[in-house]
Amino acid sequence: MRRTALLASAALLTALLPLTAAGSASGADDPAPVPVDRFEGEVPFAKQPADGIFTWGGDSDDPPALQLTDRTDAPEGAKVLTGTYEISGYGGFTHDFAADQPAHDWSARKGIRFWWDGQNNGKKIAFEIKDGGANGEASELWTTSFTDDFTGWKQIEIPFADFIYRTDYQPVGGIDHVLGLTQMWGYAVTLPVGVKGQFAMDDVELYGKADQSLRASVTTDAGVYPVGEGGTATVKVTVATTGSAPIDDPVTVTYETAGGTAEPGKDYTPVSGTLTFPAGTASGAVQTIQVPTLKDGSAESAETIPLKLTVTGAKAPAETPQIVVDAHGLPYLNAKLPVKKRVADLLGRMSLQEKAGQMTQAERGAMSRPGDIADYDLGSLLSGGGSTPTPNTPAAWAKMVDGFQLRAQATRFQIPLIYGVDAVHGHNNLAGATVMPHNIGIGATRDPGLAEKAGAVTAAEVRATGIPWDFAPCLCVSRDERWGRSYESFGEDPALVQSMETVIQGLQGRANGKDLSRGDKVLATAKHFVGDGGTAYGSSTTGKYTVDQGVTTVTRQQLEAIHLAPFGTAVDRGIGTVMPSYSSLDIIGDGQGPVKMHARADMINGVLKDRMGFDGFVISDWNAIDQLPGDYPAHVRTSVNAGVDMMMVPYAYKDFTATLIDEVTAGRIGERRIDDAVSRILTQKFRLGLFEHPYADTSGAAAIGSAAHRAVARQAAAESQVLLKNSGGLLPLKKSEKVYVAGSNADDIGNQTGGWTLTWQGSSGNITKGTTVLQGMREAGGNVTYSKDASAPIDGYDVGVVVVGETPYAEGVGDVGNGHDLQLSAADKAAVDKVCAAMKCAVLIVSGRPQLIGDRLDGIDALVASWLPGTEGEGVADVLYGARPFTGQLPVTWPRSQEQLPINVGDTSYDPQFPYGWGLTTLTKVPDGGVASLKALERAAAVAERAGSASAGRDIVTKARLLVQQKAGSALTAAASAPFADADHLLLTGKYAAAVAKLTQAYRAVA
Question: Fewer CB atoms inside 10 Å of the end CB: C or N, the chain?
Fold first, then answer.
């Protein structure tokens, strides 16, 4: 599941004419317009901190190409700004004012305007201005849009009153959420996505004179006021101005209760009157209106009382506030009744529209009109990757979610929303959260108890911000490391994935769902059902992706043994929700060919729900139904009938609900199917305790990013480190040794945490609180010198540590062949070569998948697969300096070349660089002996197996593995690698004696 973070920033020109310039432009009382950008070359193409115009985009192809072009038809001057674009993610351009100059004061003006050369493409073009903050890259974004539905030059005029605060993306923490207009930094234009186009723009200027009706506004402190029957609602009415100046003229607010579903005189006492804010009233002044409700003694659903406000002298509120008399006395509200009875009672009262709403999930960024939550009876909202409140703090998250929940209280039955996030390695959208290693690193720990602890930390931090639902864990079995999502997998062996599913108990608690209402647990999601880890290279039909969202072609037996097995375990563990895959499944011999998983009723209804007995609900992936064949009604009909219960339709929630209702009304979707879906959704909401406690319980917020939580992440980082080679016992390092540290990933917390960190794709740099590997080494007491590119003098050191690897990516954006490969960068190769030629060296590879290192392996003394260790670099330092032993094992096979891929344990041809399960250790005595010792271990393993002693069995197999590794060094042959890898699979399936027998075979095969 994904969401692309949108616009980058905006800003403007420094050399504005005085805002008091005399003259008349469009009216007798209007002052002359003030130029902002004439595009005559007075503003360069440059970035902050300089004054300049620059482009941006979601990837390297998205920024438009800009130039200043001579045009005889230029509306002003000789030149205009022109550009071409073909954007797949997001892209546009910005004009930032110089950051070392004062911001601009636009508060005396009515608005901003510019000339646009229309292409009549019908596309919306977003236009933003930037208000307050330190500079153009650290200000608030205020946005509006216009439609290119004309041909030729047209002057676009936008009053400042038309701009709204961006809720889907802000570049920094919140400032005041008020468009002050006294500290302006510029503008930005977001160009249309999905079309190849061109544009021309000229003469950006400020126009008109601000008047109070545009500068002043009246707001209420909420849009919805729930109140118990017989209680009194208090509505706070505020007058505020841009620039925060006192109002010049009186503002009056006439109010009356009118309309709604509540009955005046029976359910409430009608009120009416007028509030007056005299001239000179300070911006921010508040007056109140009280609306008393009455008790009538009968059980009822919620009833609404709109409070109509008529404003003179200022801009009226965007919506009519509503007092809501809470639902009361109905069986579904009785927490003492069994969940099944509560669901049946509520379902029996609901209309088709209300049911359709429960099956709909929208993105928070779509809620520019929050009243849609009640108007469409929405059941769920989500934050995609990078979709965060401003500021990005625990308190802001809780306030945001509570604000959305408040809107759901205006519905007839006050069914709470269920809010979801992709917390795939900690609460990774939240700045300052504890970020765990990605799943591939957790798989390397081979520690189910630790996986459960990591899940528990994640759940506690997520729920403390008001969010009860996590789109995790990913139970894919990664079979080709060219896949951009491979790091989301615990490994290539279904048995390993199953063993790590203890994370579900960490997230949800007990399998019976009794813990879901706790303040430190969340509903978990098993994804992506089924086979997403088996898609073939080159089979993707999504853009430039090569593996992701492709086709998995398997026999029925392979499907069951490899891809379905982890989901059976998840169901047994009580998983609350399941998300189908974007990918297609092609079962050999079934005659269907490749079929998108969101359309596979045989898998969702037949296998997951009927055969496995899954009683939670199925949530679609982000806009996934749009990939199904046919028109939109066919998309809705096919996916719902296939068993998808809730649709993640981030920005299409209106179309989805309307289409779903039409399909049911026409009889193409049965009402029983709708009732089944809604029952499943309501069941989880009741289990989560949302009806009793819809708002955030922030009592656990103090523990977010705490020392205790980071200690779990530190342990996970340490246990995830896989020691692949250790010639001469170079590791662990001694604190007395002088260590030369180099490489691109030694001191980069963004690279260390990878994708799905604060944004969908993640990013390099100092993006969140944490400790890099370099910092961890220093804090461990190491005598360390750092030179990223190894350019510093290299003489006089005892050992080098070169930390190299990948930069962040997510999903198909990271597919090999889509701008990525498995090679180290040229800079990383140069750093490895220079350091390892000069001294003994250890190379750490920070990456989401194996990197091809074989051509340099002979020159490297120690090699570590560090994976993506998260925010706690001290965990890496712990094993480097011997505070903890290396114990990690490869969760995937490490190939010799890209041509070997896919390569997995159990393959008939298997000759990797390092086999699945490989992992040297430190601080642990390796057993003595040879084949005789292994035979004795095999007998002991058989005894442990018969006794059902898993702990003893694991210990025995580990001793045998260490013995084989000691003999083999780092030069396993194909004859040894295959049984070695098989042994780890057998260990995970509880076949300890067979595992030792395979290790004995490997031992004999070692040259």
Answer: C
Between CA 341 and CA 640 the distance in angstroms is 25
Q: Are 980 and 999 in contact (CB under 8 A)?
A: yes
Active-site residue, 811 included: yes
- 816, 482 in Cβ contact below 8 A? yes
Measured CA distances, 480 to 492, 598, 851, 868 (Å): 8, 22, 13, 18
What is the residue type of 129? I
Rounded CA separation 435/122 (Å)? 43
pTM of the complete model: 0.87
For residues 617 and 680, the answer to whether their CB atoms sit within 8 Å is: yes
- Of 96, 128, 267, 621, which residue is the catalytic one? 621
Closest by alpha carbon to 27, among 110, 84, 98, 108?
A: 110
Choose, from 811, 828, 872, 878, the residue flagged as catalytic. Answer: 811
pLDDT band at 8 (very low <50, low <70, confident <90, very high): very low
For residues 250 and 348, is the Cβ–Cβ distance under 8 A?
A: no
Is the Cβ–Cβ distance between 941 and 993 less than 8 Å? yes
In the residue annotation, 692 being an active-site residue is answered as: no
Mean pLDDT of 625-633: 97
Band of pLDDT at residue 23, cut at 50, 70 and 90: very low
Contacts of 613 (CB under 8 A, 6+ apart): 571
Identify which of 142, 165, 172, 225 has the alpha carbon closest to the alpha carbon of residue 368: 165
- In a 10 Å sphere around its CB, with 0-12 CB exposed, 13-18 middle and 19+ buried, how is residue 917 labelled? buried
Q: Helix, strand or coil for residue 655?
A: helix
How far is it, in rounded angstroms, from Cα 93 to Cα 83?
A: 10
Q: Is the pLDDT of residue 175 over 90?
A: no
Q: How far apart are CA 48 and CA 719, in angstroms?
A: 42
Which pairing describes strands 251-257 and 840-846: parallel, antiparallel, or unpaired? unpaired
Query: Using CB atoms within 10 A of its CB, is residue 666 exposed (0-12), middle (13-18) or buried (19+)?
Result: exposed
The whole-angstrom separation of Cα 803 and Cα 866 is: 9
Q: Report the interhelical angle of 653-665 vs 632-642 (nearest 10°).
A: 70
- The share of the chain scoring above pLDDT 70, in percent, equals 97
Mean pLDDT for the stretch of residues 737-744 = 98
C-alpha–C-alpha distance, residues 165 and 193, integer Å: 22
pLDDT tens digits along 949-974: 999 999 999 999 999 999 998 778 99
- Measured in whole angstroms, the distance separating CA 359 from the mean position of its chain's CA atoms is 21
pLDDT for 3: 36
Asked if the model's pLDDT at residue 681 lies above 90, the reply is yes
Q: Model confidence over 443-469: pLDDT tens digits?
A: 999 999 999 999 999 999 999 999 999
d(CA 432, CA 709): 12
Using 50, 70 and 90 to split pLDDT, how confident is the model at 165? confident
**Is the Cβ–Cβ distance between 143 and 127 less than 8 Å?**
yes
Q: Is the pLDDT of residue 980 over 90?
A: yes
- Whether residue 750 contacts residue 766, with contact meaning beta carbons closer than 8 Å, is answered with yes
